[in-house]
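quick one: xanthosine-5'-monophosphate bound model?
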Amino acid sequence: DWTSAAFVETTIADLQAQIGDDKVVLALSGGVDSSVAAVLLHKAIGKNLHCIFVDNGLLRKNEYESVLEQYKDFGLNIKGVDAKDRFLGELAGVEDPETKRKIIGRVFIEVFDDEAHQIQDVKWLAQGTIYPDVIESVSVKGPSATIKSHHNVGGLPDFMKLKVVEPLKSLFKDEVRRVGTTLGLESFILGRHPFPGPGLGIRIIGDVTPEKVAILQDADQIYINNLKEAGLYDKIWQAGAIFLPVRSVGVMGDERTYENVIALRAVESLDGMTADWCHLPYDVLAKISNEIINKVKGINRVVYDISSKPPATIEWE
Ligand code: XMP
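yep, here:
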């Protein structure tokens, strides 16, 4: 007997009672949860909600621009922060996956804290935490978890002194999507595949360079667009391309090439905890492979990941 309309109505009233005329800051990621949390809060407290969307340079191709545009259309009070150079600068030469994750998490907090600091008299930090994040909080990764894990560490950033509001804390993912639909969010946001907080930074195996990011963005865009054209995108839990720091020999015309490999990953899952690789049709895979190899300079080979979780994780790092 749970209905999204009733949830929206009660939650808006609760948020208004809880927050009053205080200002709230929220980090938007472009994902479903933070977007739904933002729109819900916006309905409740309007311009007192200040959203911050950080471009870490590790987003999908054109993601920053298109997502920012969507949010503005929604009337959200949002500030985009271009921190690409800062993230990529700090990542330069770093190969270890956990170190990369920690750097991305730390820089995110620094950038977000700087920005939150510029809003006068903020009292609350809103987060798009959902129920599975609460119960799996030990294994959850990403900005929100990073914020939590910093609780016990000395020298807290300023925004840690804020009170926390988490309007989606009792909901499962499908309920969050239904709430989003009730709020009028489009499938452009609601139907998106999960995307990790560290973004393409953990889909480039080994060290991250701006050149590798550009190659991976192009390959990933071809992959995702083809899945959409084939009507497969919505049937897949999550898909993405991975840049492998492996070079292999190929031929192009009369020339010998020696270039990098792109791996494609697509999985079916209910909650991300376990996952099966998708049996994508061969003709779709063939088209994607041809298009990537023909159009993306620096790639001469495409492979498909046929590993399930466990033991393979969804992300490669
Ligand atoms: P794994 O790779 O552990 O991923 O099988 C399970 C799900 O979690 C996502 N994931 C992340 N999400 N921050 C996030 O917000 C992260 O650091 C992170 N790492 C993995 C992954 O994309 C998949 O949906």
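The radius of gyration is 20 Å.
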